[in-house]
Specification:
Elements: E1 5-9, H1 13-22, E2 27-31, H2 34-43, E3 47-53, H3 61-69, E4 79-84, H4 88-96, E5 101-105, H5 109-119
Parallel strand pairs: 1-2, 1-3, 3-4, 4-5
Helix pairs in contact: 2-3
The structure holds magnesium ion.
């Protein structure tokens, strides 16, 4: 079975590069903001996990999360919020909107790997 895809929604190119290195055995799809993220979800039916930034132009992470959770076809995809230290209010709002988990920047590759293997089929083997 092909490994399923992880969608990374973040406006920081550096974060995308870090995830590429940390998650090199996974297939990543990249989106630069919420609007791009919604489009990528439409293009890739096999996304099994979303890593989501909060602060982004055009459509932020909370707005994106609301859209995903209101869409029956998408609402079961687990969403991990990648939040900034000291922004606890945003994290709390994201969890209330249905995020599955969160990690706080700066994060270690061990913590992202642990969370990804817990929430994806590829980690169950
Ligand atoms: Mg950002």
């Amino acid at each position: 079975m092909d490994p399923k895809k992880i969608l990374v929604v973040d406006d920081s190119k550096l974060i995308h590069k870090m995830f590429e290195v940390m998650l090199r055995s996974h297939r990543l799809v990249h989106a630069e903001d919420g609007i791009d993220g919604i489009q990528k979800l439409a293009e890739h039916a096999d996304i099994e996990l979303i890593l989501l930034d909060i602060n982004m132009p055009r459509m932020n992470g909370l707005e994106f999360l609301r859209e995903v959770k209101n869409d029956e076809a998408l609402s079961t995809i687990p969403v991990v919020v990648v939040s900034t230290e000291g922004k606890d209010e945003d994290t709390e709002r994201a969890m209330k909107l249905g995020a599955t988990a969160y990690i706080t920047k700066p994060f270690q590759s061990e913590s992202i790997l642990a969370i990804v293997s817990r929430l994806t089929m590829s980690g169950v083997s």
